Amino acid sequence: MADSAKENMTASEKRLYFLIQLTAHRLKKHADAALTEAAELTTAQAAALSVVARHEPVSQRFIANELSQRESAVMTMTTRLQKADYVAKRRSATDGRAWDLTITEEGKAALSKMERPFAAINELIDQRLGSDGVDQLSEHLLNLLTALND
Closest Cα partner for 103 from 85, 121, 120, 119? Predict the structure, then answer.
């Protein structure tokens, strides 16, 4: 098959959905293993902890919205973070029915431990794709996300 014919193949012919899904799964497994070793966190818990750190105090609903997750999933994550003493939970000052989450010193230390594993993953991506590839992939993924959000 000529190179130009390979370049003009459809997403289906290239099995693009499968490749994106498989790559995302393997990146997540790799990151989960590295984060668990470094800070005893999964990528999902790390994401939730990062949201708390950036926006505290926050509600579980806020975290769910930021991460595009269900509140029940976020409740499980934040319960684990609280048991690990990475976040503190207290009644909201503005809504007596809600809880506010804030990061603890242990949580800040965990965030610091997460930096090296994420840097290694991003370095792998940078090395494999190069700066042009990173720019293009980022642009294309954001374009797909926009289309899927419409």
Answer: 85
